[in-house]
Amino acid sequence: MKNRPQYAIDSVDHALRLATLLQQEGPMGVSAAAERLGVSRSTAHRLLAMLVYRDFAEQDADRRYRAGPALRPADATPAPVRLLHEIAPAHMRSLVERVRETVNLQVLAGSEVRFLDTVECDQILRVGDRSGRVLPAHLSSSGKVLLAALPPDELARRYPDPAAAGVDLARLRRELALIRRRGFAINEGLTETGLSALGVAVPWPRDGLPAAAISVAMPSARFDRDRIPFWVGSLRRTATAIANDLTEAARPETT
Length: 255
Prior knowledge:
Blueprint: H1 10-25, H2 30-37, H3 41-53, E1 57-59, E2 65-67, H4 81-99, E3 102-109, E4 112-119, E5 134-136, H5 141-148, H6 152-158, H7 162-165, H8 169-182, E6 185-188, E7 195-202, E8 212-219, H9 228-250
Antiparallel strand pairs: 1-2, 3-4, 3-8, 4-5, 6-7, 7-8
Helix pairs in contact: 1-3, 2-3, 4-9, 5-8
């Protein structure tokens, strides 16, 4: 039998209960959520807004809320996640200082890309924190560079039913071939209206596949194709620095 913690935090308890309700009972509106939790409508609305922000909930066209990607079964990732969390942020902060745009670190999991870390820029109009979010890999810049590194047969395995995933596999293969040639990918409004991003892979020499990907994300109003060489060059230098530190950290200690 579980006992309520002595120093329980009601707001956390409400959020966790609400996430569980969405997962187990299906879509519900603000009024229903308030009634189930025994809180006011305004409190329920704030809780739902935070769950949406962290991908634990999504809002349907009918304005009801349902369980989000963070509550769905997720594929495992072979990426060195712990090392990436330790090593990458310092390099990401340096990159943000250089490009003055938000920088994200992502890993591939099945046919999705997971955001491990975000370092926001200080511009008033900017892309916010995406940590913890999950997006379709074939739409995001980082997802596409990670898919481009997979063997051809592995791509088919990750999309056993392309139509159900909304993927034109032949078209995606052509796009990934172009990404392999130029070494970076672009997302212009595919995952979010008004957002543009460029991504490059972070090398990982252990198995020949990238450890992760990093991206520069910005409001589309500031996306200037003449600046792509600068952004990509900055991303590549950062990716190499992260990869070098990963290799050093993963090297067995000798005595």
